[in-house]
Write a structure and sequence with these properties.
13 helices, TIM Barrel, alpha+beta, globular, Immunoglobulin-like
Length: about 725
């Protein structure tokens, strides 16, 4: 395998490249200098905004990247090609592309995350191959009639690429990634080759003595006399199963193996995320012509949905999801294996056992790491808010969705698919468009039906959520709650007494630390009005996240079966939803999740006479010991006590009630600790200014040029910041 290097690029500002035939062998650039720009060398492949702009995360200057297509050029030697199958493999191109090799069109593609391969056998030369790739990601100009005042919500997104062009404090309006995002590989294989887009789908139901693994692949070239040979290695590297099958006349390989008494994949607090290696070889006369391999896991996942509950089970037992949402960078090209590993390790260290990939698709290495670390993934599609509704667009969109399912379905970490995210929520933000429209009916009853049929065909054993945020929809069942944050004028303590079956979005966006914010003068300048309140904003996020998390965990299975904080890290320097800033520095909100989000948690619940101590256990084992509490005022101990406690697997218990008068004029500190019989601390908890929660925020500001939002305080909130 050879990675193609020495790329150059030019923008075809009049979109004349194809008309003029610049990809042809006999094309003379000198004759078209008045029509076409010069090619300029690229240091590497990646989003063009990152490579060619001084500021890729905001600014009207970015809009020109999407106003006309780009042409990439690469000249390379292939070496000996006689008798070889030649494949070009693109790991990621955003968004539309056409590929020309040595004057011939060899393929087209739509998407941004899907690796694709092109058979160039017979077109490849030993030397001086000329590869041209046209890439474009245009702006959308169709707006829902009546929704012009809120374009970022009502623009009809014709590309299936998630949340581009938001300008609502998430992704800045001028950002629309484009380019060849990752490596382009040339693979020469003597005789015959296996396409890399193959699957090893695991089928297992709780209680079965064995699992089935179905391998589907395709061979190209002269595969006459070849066989497909599969070997499955257990987590320790021993052979667990092996078999061979003939190759179909069209090169198809379809073989199912049985795995007896499999080791099950588990999330990290429930056991080992055991994985098996599936190795597929194309064999002729005992010799392997080509080999591919991947790791899979054996586990069963079910989703129970009724009017009372939305509950996942893993390997036959209910599981409480402690999740966060993730979008590591606007530009996927900038996310390396190391950066993924850092983020996912921090996610697990904070106690989370699940990640929601929000309205986009990550690189394959992200899912590999989740498989390894035992982290669940709820995988969104790229459908968010408003889209075109014509039949041709829906067919294209369904094809992109099917590609997502096909290339990611072998990962055991993927818990479920989300077909649509908030498909009609944009109406809340537009001017009076609160009625159900014909477009909504088409989205929900036509596009959704297509997506559901794809899931039932390609991945029938994995659960799905039809439309996230639709709590009463029998095919959805989850909720999003922003009381005290996006719902400006509300206070987060107002969620007290409410119940949710499964929350997949809640949170609070606040700026990070001054050191990071001052890296960009314009961002820092836009924050001057709230600069004195930065510490208070982070304190507010901390208290809100702590309150929400305790609220959901106190309802463990009665009815709540989990939560997903929105979101883990800022995806650009001026988007503040994360509990880590863009550079990976924790905000105070990260420590809130670190304190209250682990599998074994202590919670203090206010009562009329004082407080109740509650233990919540998400492990599958029993804990016994002593729960001690201490109340301090101004650093002086005012009360203390202890209770003997025992908590069984995957449950919650009330440990005991303590009497204490928490007064707003004298903030008290509450410390809790649960120790085992050997004196080791099993878990602990600290409440500063216990039960003094924040009133409603005053409002929010929005900088449309930067795509940046921040909240500002009312006098009562500032006073509470001072006390807390």
């Amino acid at each position: 395998m050879k990675k193609l290097a020495d790329w150059s690029v030019m923008q075809d500002v009049h979109d004349l490249g194809e008309t003029l035939g610049l990809y042809r062998e006999d094309f003379d650039f000198a004759q078209c200098a008045h029509l076409l720009s010069d090619f300029e060398p690229l240091p590497r492949l990646g989003a063009l905004q990152v490579l060619l702009s001084d500021q890729p995360y905001y600014g009207r200057a970015l809009r020109y990247f999407n106003q006309a297509p780009w042409w990439y050029r690469c000249q390379f030697d292939a070496g000996e090609t006689a008798g070889c199958v030649a494949l070009l493999r693109f790991l990621a191109v955003d968004y539309y592309c056409k590929v020309y090799l040595n004057g011939a069109l060899v393929g087209e593609h739509e998407g941004y995350f899907e690796p694709f391969e092109l058979d160039v056998t017979g077109l490849l030369r030993e030397k001086d191959n000329r590869l041209f790739v046209k890439v474009w990601a245009p702006w959308d100009d169709q707006i829902l009639t009546g929704g012009e005042a809120m374009r970022c919500f009502s623009v009809k997104r014709a590309m299936v690429k998630g949340t581009y062009e938001h300008a609502d404090g998430f992704i800045q309006r001028d950002v629309n990634p484009v380019g060849i995002l990752d490596d382009v590989e040339l693979r020469l294989t003597p005789g015959a080759a296996l396409l890399r887009g193959w699957n090893a789908c695991v089928s297992y139901h709780t209680g079965d003595a064995a699992a089935r693994i179905r391998i589907t692949a395709k061979a190209l070239g002269n595969f006459c006399g070849c066989r497909g040979a599969v070997r499955i290695l257990d987590p320790m590297g021993g052979c667990a199963a092996e078999a061979e099958c003939p190759i179909g006349g069209d090169g198809a390989i379809d073989l199912t193996l049985t795995l007896e008494r499999p080791q099950l994949w588990n999330c990290w607090e429930r056991g080992e995320p055991a994985r098996y290696t599936v190795r597929l070889a194309l064999v002729r006369e005992g010799a392997a012509l080509d080999t591919v391999e991947k790791q899979v896991g054996v586990r069963s996942v079910t989703l129970e949905r009724t009017q009372e509950r939305t509950r996942f089970s893993l390997n036959g037992r209910p599981i409480f999801l402690r999740g966060t949402s993730y979008f590591g960078d606007i530009y996927l090209s900038e996310l390396s294996y190391d950066r993924y590993y850092r983020d996912l390790r921090l996610i697990r260290d904070a106690g989370f056992n699940a990640v929601r990939v929000h309205v986009h698709v990550e690189k394959d290495s992200f899912y590999d790491i989740c498989d390894e670390l035992g982290l669940f993934v709820i995988q969104d599609s790229d459908f968010n808010w408003d889209h075109p509704t014509d039949p041709a667009w829906m067919e294209r969109a369904a094809a992109v969705f099917a590609a997502m399912v096909r290339i990611r379905r072998d990962h055991p970490s993927i818990l479920c698919w989300v077909a649509l995210n908030e498909p009609d929520l944009w109406k809340i933000f537009t001017h009076g468009l609160l009625e159900q429209t014909a477009q909504d009916e088409i989205m929900l009853n036509t596009l959704c039906v297509k997506l559901m049929n794809i899931l039932k065909e390609l991945d029938p054993e994995r659960p799905y959520i039809r439309a996230s945020r639709e709590e009463d929809d029998p095919e959805s069942g989850d909720s999003h709650t922003y009381t005290g944050s996006l719902a400006v004028g509300t206070a987060y303590p107002q969620i007290a007494g409410t119940t949710e079956k499964l929350n997949t979005e809640f949170g609070m966006d606040v700026p990070g630390d001054v050191g990071a914010l001052t890296r960009d003068r314009r961002i820092w300048g836009a924050l001057q009005s709230v600069a004195p309140d930065l510490e208070g904003l982070q304190a507010y996020q901390y208290r809100l996240l702590r309150y929400y998390t305790d609220h959901y965990r106190l309802q463990k299975y009665a009815p709540c079966s989990g939560y997903f904080q929105f979101m883990f890290i800022d995806l650009c320097p001026q988007s503040f939803y994360g509990i880590l800033d863009f550079y990976g520095t924790p905000k105070r909100g990260y420590y809130a999740m670190l304190e209250c989000g682990g599998p074994l948690a202590l919670i203090a619940q206010k009562t009329q006479q004082g407080f109740r101590i509650v233990l919540v256990n998400d492990y599958l084992k029993t804990f016994q010991g002593t729960v001690a509490y201490t109340v301090l005022e101004n650093g002086v101990c005012r009360a203390r006590g202890e209770f003997q406690a025992e908590i069984g697997p995957d449950t919650r218990v009330d440990v005991g009630d303590a009497v204490w008068d928490f007064r707003p004029d004298s903030p008290a500190e509450l410390r809790l600790a649960f120790t085992g019989a050997d004196g080791a601390v099993l878990t602990k908890r600290h409440y500063s200014a216990a039960f003094l929660e924040f009133p409603a925020m005053a409002g929010q500001t929005m900088d449309n040029e930067l795509g940046m939002r921040t909240y500002h305080f009312s006098a009562p909130v500032k006073e509470r910041v001072r006390i807390c």
